[in-house]
Design a protein that fits this description.
Layout: H1 4-12, E1 18-22, E2 25-30, E3 33-39, E4 44-48, H2 51-58, E5 65-67, H3 71-74, E6 77-81, H4 87-101, H5 104-111
Antiparallel strand pairs: 1-2, 2-3, 3-4, 4-6, 5-6
Helix pairs in contact: 4-5
Length: 121
Amino acid sequence: MVDSETFIIILKSFDETLEEPHFEKLSYRVSKKIYATLDLLNNIAVLKLTPAEQAEYCAIDETAIYPVKGGWGKMGYTCFELNRLKKEIVISATTSAYCNTAPKKLSIKYQKNQKEPNQKQ
């Protein structure tokens, strides 16, 4: 189970990540592009996944990992209820989101260590 402080530490561990406000949430960006947002009040993150990655993560626990409503969800943006998920799953999904967004020169070092999201809760 992951609290907001731990999630922020995970996000900031990725090269060139910047934290900026985004409406009533915090956004985490690389090369000016958002790869994650965090709703501190509800401890829910939204991560920028591919639709295929989204399906894999949602299969782990569809009550705690689910597509964002509407068109953004169809593009792979996925909600993660952090307080209901194992840290390893959150790290893996966050790594995917970062690698989907960061320039190749930054993401390459994280892609080597990426694990498959096949861990059931």
